[in-house]
Design a protein that fits this description.
The protein has eight helices and two strands, in the order H-E-E-H-H-H-H-H-H-H. It is mainly α. It has a two-stranded antiparallel sheet with strand order 1-2. The longest helix is centred in the first third of the chain and has 33 residues.
Length: 194
């Protein structure tokens, strides 16, 4: 089979996926981008307004508050999750059934439904009967309204986000650690690395 024939068959096999991405991703993204330059209430036809929507958006203080919250969440999750995942991957970079059990336990939140996780964490953060407030009361500390406080809501969501996704990052780091050739470990040990 020549290269032209291989390309033809590759395209034929990729066509269903390309159509799906085009219809369900590319076209809606382009349509949304086009509509961002129009005023449209979904009842009347769109009316072209140019950059007016963007100038109004940039002048809105709520937009900047949302952007600040997004950056705060993203930076906190990255700076907490990556070192934690790397530490877990180094600890799990061994063979044995106990290590495999712990790998599975750490990866379970990744494959668990977000709805189930949200319900469980909502209960744990409950100000009256939640697990975290129960632990605080047990050691004599006052209860915290985790999700109702402007101070504690973001750290509570960050903690849940890190818990949910750290297993995925751990598996990626673990895959990288397990593909390092044994000779490099031996060479590093001979050079005095711990």
């Amino acid at each position: 089979m020549d290269r032209h024939e291989e390309r033809k068959w590759a395209f034929i096999f990729l066509l269903p996926s390309l159509l799906g991405v085009g219809v369900f991703v590319a076209i809606p993204v382009l349509a949304s981008f086009g509509l961002s330059f129009a005023h449209w209430n979904m009842l009347s036809p769109p009316r072209w307004v140019g950059l007016q929507n963007y100038t109004e958006l940039l002048a809105d203080p709520t937009f900047w508050q949302v952007m600040g919250n997004t950056f705060y969440y993203a930076l906190a999750v990255v700076f907490l999750e990556i070192p934690l995942a790397l530490g877990l991957a180094i600890a799990m970079n061994q063979s044995g059934w106990v290590t495999k059990v712990f790998r599975t336990i750490y990866f379970l939140p990744v494959v668990t439904s977000m709805v189930a996780i949200a319900l469980v964490w909502n209960w744990m953060y409950d100000p009256q009967i939640g697990l975290f407030n129960g632990l605080l009361s047990a050691v004599g500390l006052p209860k915290v309204e985790w999700l109702y406080s402007t101070f504690w809501a973001m750290p509570a969501l960050i903690f849940m986000g890190v818990w949910k996704n750290v297993g995925y990052s751990m598996i990626l780091f673990l895959a990288g650690l397990q593909t390092i050739p044994e000779e490099l470990y031996e060479a590093a040990e001979l050079d005095g690395a711990n």
